[in-house]
Amino acid sequence: MLDIGKTSNLPQPKCYFSTTTLSTYDDSSELPTKKLPFNLLHSAPYYHSMTLLSPSSSTLHTSLSSSQSKYARLQMPLLSLLTGDFFNKHIKTGNVLLFSSPLKLDTTSSEASFTLINGMLSIVCDRALYERAGLTGTAIPDPHARKHGTSKFRIELNLRLPSMLAGKKGFERILRAVETVFVGDISWLFYDVSAAGVADNDESLGKEVQIKEVKPETEDMEKVLVPGFRSNMTTNANQENDLVELLEWISLAAINSPRIQQGDLVDEIISRYEVPEISSNAVNGSSTGITTQSLTKTTATGFLTASFVADTFGNALLQSKGSWFALLVQGFADGKAFVVLKNADNQALSWDVEG
């Protein structure tokens, strides 16, 4: 684990680094899902944004820009999800992903959020709503609250159980909580895993459905100072600073910062950043040097499923033999993010950020 962040009484974000030498793959069907760095791609069911950095001379940005994915934005109360055609078609028998915006109640300052993954409805709410709902859940310790304080609770309901039907005692109890406590329209992001997107003319989604399409955007970056990262990097004490600086450079490249461009002139009062020279040898401290390259940044934003991210990484891996690329992925909440750098020597460097 890399030591990133200032000393504080509050919990600091954690960054776990790993490195592995990738095997040679000729087809996407050969790609694993449980080995590093592939398991990072499936560490969450969906993500918010994804950025691919690669030399402009490669064709990676062309393959990503042609990728397509559709999702829907729904506007409906929680009760509508648990009754009618939507419940029977998408929850009891289908396979969908749902992510909600916070439900804020006008009468109080309470709020709740909801997710649905593999038929499991997860409700996160404060103590007041939890006690009013009367459903069994678990406390979520809040590291930013006072000692021994628990400000939120999580309720998990497996809606695919045979007992989750109208007329059953347990299900009717859930409906009463929804009708009396979790009341109000909610905005949802919806993805149908069974249909690999959103099926056309799906009336169960309601009248206020908006079909969204993920449209990757490309941006060319000229005269970028790129640190050399061909060396066999590890997490030993001599190279930990190099790993932190390399992650910082990738993050700056992802936002096309002028600090990494050749000829950048900025007052030292504003910024003292310099592109790092990564050590290629931990013994003599030799450097791999800095080169000037033209890069292409391809960004996709929306409701990105893990399969979409995995397909992007797999296509980039198959097409980048002898070259490098970096993939940055950001989740919706909890600070979940990861970065994977594949260098020209077929080595994958991975940073898994939490918090």
Automatic annotation (TrEMBL):
Gene Ontology BP annotations: endonucleolytic cleavage in ITS1 to separate SSU-rRNA from 5.8S rRNA and LSU-rRNA from tricistronic rRNA transcript (SSU-rRNA, 5.8S rRNA, LSU-rRNA); tRNA 5'-leader removal
Domain of life: Eukaryota
Molecular function GO terms recorded: ribonuclease MRP activity; ribonuclease P activity
GO cellular component, one term: ribonuclease MRP complex
InterPro entries, sorted: RNase_P_Rpp40 (IPR013893)
The name this protein goes by in its record: Uncharacterized protein
Upper taxonomic lineage: Eukaryota, Fungi, Dikarya, Ascomycota, Pezizomycotina
